[in-house]
């Protein structure tokens, strides 16, 4: 039931941003950016926290289950929303050099697979590389917030 409420909320936000003939503009981009920041932070932290849980016991099979059955389905809902926003607003995003936001979001499964491989192979260097990429992505989003004069405090959804 909670998942259904979250899904309905995400759909409502998506419609308010792009389905009601409200393409992204300089005037509404900050609102979009806050939504994106919350979703990106949530998905990144859910992934990292799930990884930490299974890393302690070197349980890569448990992490696979978490990744595939808990993390990915919620991530996929958000990804579909952002794919739709990207498709609808490609010109605005390209003209303003903001398409990286979407590639960053779509790379989260790549990071999850990297974390899985580092756990399976017990490879700290591989793990560090993926964690560093996640941290650098979050820093890049934070820098965009600062550049646009937005104080960002993500609301992390469980």
Structure description:
This protein is mainly α. It has one domain. Helix content is 79%, strand content 0%. The protein has 7 helices and no strands. The radius of gyration is 16 Å and the shape is elongated. Mean pLDDT is 87; it is low at 16-21.
Rg over CA atoms: 16 Å
Distance between the termini: 14 Å
- The 3D shape can be described as elongated
Amount of helix? over 70%
Q: How many individual helices?
A: 7
- When the domains are counted, the total is 1
| Unreliable residue runs | 16-21
Summarize the structure.
It is built from 7 helices and no strands. It has 158 residues and is mostly helical.
Descriptive labels:
158 residues, mainly alpha
Write the layout of secondary structure elements.
Layout: H1 2-19, H2 29-55, H3 60-88, H4 90-95, H5 100-106, H6 108-121, H7 124-147
Helix pairs in contact: 1-3, 2-3, 2-6, 2-7, 3-6, 6-7
């Amino acid at each position: 039931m909670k998942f259904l409420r979250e899904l309905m909320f995400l759909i409502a936000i998506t419609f308010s941003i792009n389905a009601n003939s409200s393409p992204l503009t300089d005037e509404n981009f900050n609102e979009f950016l806050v939504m994106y920041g919350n979703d990106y932070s949530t998905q990144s932290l859910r992934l990292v926290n799930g990884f930490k849980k299974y890393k302690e016991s070197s349980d890569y099979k448990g992490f696979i289950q978490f990744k595939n059955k808990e993390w990915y389905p919620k991530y996929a809902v958000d990804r579909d929303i952002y794919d739709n926003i990207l498709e609808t607003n490609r010109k605005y995003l390209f003209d303003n050099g903001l398409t990286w936001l979407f590639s960053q979001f779509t790379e989260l499964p790549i990071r999850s697979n990297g974390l899985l491989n580092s756990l399976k192979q017990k490879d700290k260097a591989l793990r560090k590389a993926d964690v560093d990429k996640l941290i650098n992505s979050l820093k890049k989003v934070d820098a965009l917030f600062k550049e646009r004069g937005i104080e960002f405090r993500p609301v992390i959804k469980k």
